[in-house]
Design goal:
One of its GO terms (biological process) is establishment of sister chromatid cohesion. This is ATP-dependent DNA helicase CHL1. Its EC number is 5.6.2.3. Keywords: ATP-binding, Cell cycle, Helicase, Hydrolase, Iron, Iron-sulfur, Isomerase, Metal-binding, Nucleotide-binding, Nucleus. Its cofactor is [4Fe-4S] cluster. By secondary structure, the protein is α/β, with parallel strands linked by helices. The chain folds into 3 domains: 250 residues, no CATH class; 87 residues, no CATH class; 244 residues, P-loop containing nucleotide triphosphate hydrolases (Rossmann fold, 3-Layer(aba) Sandwich), CATH 3.40.50. Helices cover 50% and strands 9% of the residues. The strands form 2 sheets. It has a 7-stranded parallel β-sheet with strand order 3-4-2-5-6-1-7. Strands 10-11-9-12-13-8-14 form a 7-stranded parallel β-sheet. Helix 11 packs antiparallel against helix 12, helix 19 packs antiparallel against helix 20 and helix 25 packs parallel to helix 34. The longest helix has 42 residues. It is globular. The two termini are 54 Å apart.
Length: 794
């Protein structure tokens, strides 16, 4: 965090530290409604102070509490106040450039130099603002024209020629010691793991960037980098931003959205290619059209000369002049006949708010290639509950036997087709690839026939030895890997990495890193796995209650079933018929009381399918169906929406056969527990059956637990067990968070396993649920509590 001579006062507080009333605090945070809820004000205050103090923070605000607006208003208020601090001269605009060593220069010389730099930056800022004003006027004129003359104009499409065999033949490859293009030198060092699309972007624009570096425009800093999981979540963010002062002001915040070609490409031929052959094929086709001659070059890609630079600047000015979502940026690209995919990237330097999907932020090579400087900026990651798993999957590869078989088959066919046309090095490496795939195939066959038991983890050298090679052949693998990347004949292979090492560059560069989500518990994971080795005072956490009144929630940890059988659903107990019968009896009774929708979460598909089979045989499923129509989450993702629609229909229009609505059996960690909102009647009761502990014998989990034990060897503390518990409870909390989606919603939560009352488990539930849950409840008492709760809501 840079030093300042003026610390920003938190909005809503007087100079003496006294808190203003809620309406004043709301207004000072530029909240778009007269008065924010107290929990929103608390969240905005905590976020603002974390940014000002340069913290790493984890912020939990349940869904329905207006989290997105709070995130935007607090971060943008800080950005605006920080700009004012710069203008007042209280903070140097570029600390690195204006910091001088004691070289004997007189103070007046240093001051003169600083003033000169400030004037240059102010002049550039004013020129940019003037360009944006002109762009806003142009956009307003276009809107008036569209209102006057309805319907967009269409450009003639270029015909796409079918590819010939020559397009698939490898170009001559000079090998490790042969001549290489300048872009390849960079790719082989810092950017060894770039995706083909990003590598090519370097390749096409590097010459342009080098030639224009002498007149490169200064970058707007600090920025807010706002990342989320999906493009739809980012689109919702922009929609909320447009409601605020920052989106509606005469000079709105300069916002740009980064996305994939799949969402931003406007070339019909490339889009068609992608729809036929997938995203990777779409990326490859784009690369070809970037490299092609004048006749084949993409018509929307600006040239690399001054005319092309002016075209990109024109797109940037129009993109930043108003707040646009991605669809609007795509339409802007069509209007200006400029690629929005590259136009958006060109706009980042002058943007104040950059929205992007996770992968562009988390991958170091993507950040470097896109020249995303996080220095002194704010990194805000929303929906961050699964950030650790996302980082893990980003830097991990799973290679299956069927993939090896398919790759070998493709290599064999390629060699058969092009054997007579391949030259020297290419032929050598293709044959090497063939040998390696055959060795991997044999390794898999051997592993499959080995006795059952935990598989050992192997180093690269150990794996090579088992494949029939030796450690000194690792260098040959490096050469093969580079050949694969540079010839683009196959996708790269990623490597497993520690999460803290992968995330540490972001934490080191940014002024503040803020992780936000509706369900962030257990919060300790983020500190231990993403901030390893960092001082504890750099970490701050915040968790607020729910926006709904306490009497809108009832919860119970049920110890035993209707017949008194203890409820403890371990892996072995799922095979016990008596316990499954007890569970069926309990659900039938609950289903008779709970109105409309009831969602029951099982730890796994295996446990759900085992219970379903038993209840079909005993008739319990039929008895349950007399109260509520019964649905079950399918394994096929394509069928989930169909089942969900049937479930919703059964609730809204109950039948005489099932007068109490519907019940939905779902699986923790599957689609229904992550991306679906069960608001209002869709989930008047959420039931958790058992605890979804991950497979303890999983080799990957065993390695993660061992790593955590070594990284946190404190006496009396088992970090491996902590990880195991946290993985389980994060999945539980995500499932429970599907219900209660707004301030007027209400629901009951039943935890059917006596282990939930253990302190180490109970303490990991979200605070707003934990506060309402009664422990050690007998079945009869849970029925009475449910009946009383729903009578009060009717």
């Amino acid at each position: 965090m840079p030093e300042t001579s003026l610390v920003l006062r938190t909005p809503g507080y007087t100079s003496s530290g006294e808190q203003e009333d809620a309406s004043v605090r709301s207004r000072q945070f530029h909240f778009p409604y007269p008065t924010a809820y107290e929990i929103q004000l608390a969240l905005m205050t905590a976020l603002f102070e974390a940014i000002e103090q340069g913290k790493f923070g984890v912020f939990e605000s349940p869904t329905g509490t207006g989290k997105t607006l709070s995130l935007l208003c607090s971060t943008l208020t800080w950005l605006q106040m920080n700009r004012q601090r710069h203008t007042m001269g209280e903070l140097r605009s570029n600390e690195k450039d204006t910091t001088h060593t004691d070289d004997g220069e007189p103070d007046w010389v240093v001051a003169h130099d600083e003033a000169k730099q400030r004037r240059a930056l102010e002049q550039h800022e004013e020129q940019l603002r003037a360009s944006l004003r002109l762009a806003r006027e142009h956009l307003a004129e276009q809107r008036q024209q569209r209102e006057k003359y309805k319907g967009p104009t269409k450009r003639p499409r270029r015909s796409e020629e079918p590819p010939s065999d020559d397009e698939f033949l490898l170009a001559d490859y000079e090998g490790l010691d042969g001549p290489r293009a300048p872009w390849s030198q960079k790719a082989a060092s810092n950017d060894a793991f770039l995706t083909p699309e990003v590598r090519n972007m370097m390749r096409v624009y590097e010459a342009s960037m080098q030639s224009s570096s002498a007149i490169e425009e200064p970058e707007t800093t600090p920025k807010i980098f706002f990342a989320s999981r999906t493009h739809s979540q980012l689109a919702q963010l922009v929609h909320e931003l447009k409601k605020t002062h920052f989106g509606q002001a005469e000079e709105p915040v300069r916002c740009i959205a980064l996305g994939s070609r799949q969402h931003m490409c406007i070339h019909e031929g490339v889009r068609k290619w992608g729809s036929l052959f997938g995203t990777e094929a779409m990326n490859e086709r784009c690369l070809e059209m970037m490299e092609g001659g004048k006749s084949k070059r993409c018509e929307f890609l600006p040239s690399l000369d001054a005319v092309g630079q002016a075209q990109l600047n024109d797109y940037r000015d129009h993109a930043l002049a108003e707040v646009h979502d991605m669809e609007e940026l795509v339409q802007l690209g069509k209007q200006l006949h400029t690629c929005p995919y590259f136009g958006a990237r060109h706009s980042v330097r002058q943007a104040e708010l950059v929205t992007m999907p996770y992968n562009l932020l988390l991958q170091r090579d993507a950040r470097e290639t896109l020249q995303l400087s996080l220095e002194d900026s704010i990194v805000l990651i929303d929906e961050a509950h699964n950030l650790i798993d996302t980082i893990l999957s980003t830097y991990t590869t799973e290679l299956t036997q069927s993939q090896i078989d398919a790759a070998l088959s493709q290599v064999n066919m390629y060699l058969e087709r092009f054997a007579t046309r391949l030259k020297g090095t290419n032929e050598e490496y293709m044959c090497t690839m063939q040998v390696l795939l055959r060795a991997l195939q044999a390794f898999c066959a051997k592993a499959e026939s080995a006795p059952q038991g935990p598989l050992p983890s192997l180093t690269t050298a150990q794996l090579l030895a088992q494949l029939g090679g030796s450690a000194d052949q690792i260098n040959q693998l490096v050469k093969l890997e580079r050949w694969l990347k540079e010839t683009r004949i196959a996708k790269k292979v990623r490597v497993h990495a520690d999460r803290s090492e992968a995330f540490q560059p972001i934490v080191e560069a940014a002024r503040a890193v803020l992780l936000a989500g509706g369900t962030m518990e257990p919060i300790a994971d983020f500190q231990t796995q993403l901030l390893a080795g960092w001082p504890a005072d750099k970490f701050v956490s915040f968790s607020c209650g729910h926006i709904v009144p306490p009497d809108h929630i009832v919860g119970a940890i049920v110890d035993a079933g209707p017949k008194g059988l203890p409820l403890e659903f371990t892996h072995e107990s799922w095979q016990q018929p008596a316990l499954l019968d007890e569970l069926a009896h309990a659900l039938c009774n609950y289903g008779n009381i709970v109105p409309r929708g009831m969602v029951v979460f099982f730890p796994s598909y295996a446990s759900l399918e085992g219970a379903w089979k038993r209840w079909t045989e005993t008739g319990a499923l039929e008895r349950l169906g007399r109260r509520k129509q019964v649905y079950s989450e399918p394994r096929e993702a394509s069928q989930v929406d169909v089942i969900l629609q049937k479930y919703a229909t059964a609730i809204s229009t109950p039948s005489a056969a099932s007068p109490k609505g519907a019940i939905l059996f779902a699986v923790v960690g599957a689609k229904l527990s992550e991306g679906i909102n069960f608001q209002d009647d869709l989930a008047r009761c959420v039931v958790m059956v058992g605890l979804p502990f991950p497979q303890a014998k999983s080799p990957e989990l065993a390695e993660r637990r061992n790593y955590m034990r070594k990284a946190s060897p404190a006496a009396g503390h088992d970090a491996g067990r902590e990880l195991y518990l946290n993985l389980c409870m994060r999945a539980v909390n995500q499932s429970l968070g599907r219900a209660i989606r707004h301030k007027d919603d209400y629901a009951a939560f039943l935890l059917l396993d006596r282990r939930y009352a253990r302190t180490e488990i109970l303490s990991r539930l979200p605070g707003w649920i934990r506060a309402q849950v009664r422990e050690h409840v007998r079945f009869g008492a849970s029925i009475a509590a449910l009946a009383k709760f729903f009578r009060s809501r009717s």
